[in-house]
Amino acid sequence: MFSVSVCAGALGAQTQLLRDAVEIDLDRTVFVQVGLFVLLMLVLKPLLFDPMLGLFEEREQQTEGTKAEARAMDQASAESLAQYEQAIEHARAEGAQLQEQYRLEGIKQQSVLLTHARDAASRTLEEQRQALQREQSQVRATLEAQTHTMAQQIVQSVLGQKG
Q1: If we measure between CA atoms, which residue out of 100, 79, 24, 136 comes closest to residue 71?
Q2: Torsion of CA 2, 3, 9, 15, to 10 degrees
Q3: pLDDT score for 163
Q4: How far apart are CA 126 and CA 47, in angstroms?
Q5: pLDDT (tens digit, 9 = 90+) per residue, 52-78?
Q6: Distance (Å, whole) CA 119 – CA 37
Q7: How far apart, in whole angstroms, are the C-alpha atoms of residue 132 and residue 138?
Q8: 48 DSSP assignment
Q9: DSSP secondary structure code for residue 37 in this structure
Q10: pLDDT in tens, 101-134
Q11: How high is the pLDDT of residue 23?
């Protein structure tokens, strides 16, 4: 029973589709419309469609040309940036080398100045020692000369008191 009702339902659906179907009559107006369409295509293609397609193609070529130019500019700027970074690195290395060179020269100059200062201080110290020794010698000579005189005065004063 189930299969009979399904078949009857399917048959009813087909009948409904046949009733709802559109009927197309092929008469001469269809041929006139197709002819007008072909005529319009033949007239509008060279007048409208071909120039418009040419404009689209030209715009696409200009866009691609601009993109290619932008890529070339991007590549050139990347190369310039690489050259700039290389120049900066070279300048830094050169600066570091000069800095090290000046530092070593400064150390040499410092060493030379310290040597000169030590030599000068040594000379001054030696001169002062010599001056001090001369003065000491003079003081000893003076004291030796005075020692004899003082000894006589002491002896006279000791003898003069006892005697």
Answers
A1: 79
A2: -160
A3: 46
A4: 116
A5: 999 999 999 999 989 999 999 999 999
A6: 116
A7: 10
A8: I
A9: H
A10: 999 999 999 999 999 999 999 999 999 999 999 9
A11: 73
Residue entry with tokens 């050139």: 76
Q: Could you tell me the CA-to-CA distances from 95 to 53, 83, 103, 140 in Å, in that order?
A: 62, 18, 12, 65
For the chain, the maximum distance between any two Cα atoms, rounded to a whole number of angstroms, is 188
Q: Which residue type sits at 152?
A: Q
What would the two tokens of residue 139 be?
């003081």
Cα–Cα distance between 41 and 16 in angstroms, integer?
40
Task: Give yes or no for residue 4 having a pLDDT over 70.
Answer: no
The structure tokens listed for 55 are 């404009």
The count of C-alpha atoms lying within 13 angstroms of the C-alpha of 68, restricted to the half-sphere facing its C-beta, is 6
- In the block, tokens 């469609």 appear at 49
Tokens of 6: 């399904």
Total length of the chain:
163
Q: Is the four-CA dihedral 146, 152, 157, 158 of positive or negative sign?
A: positive
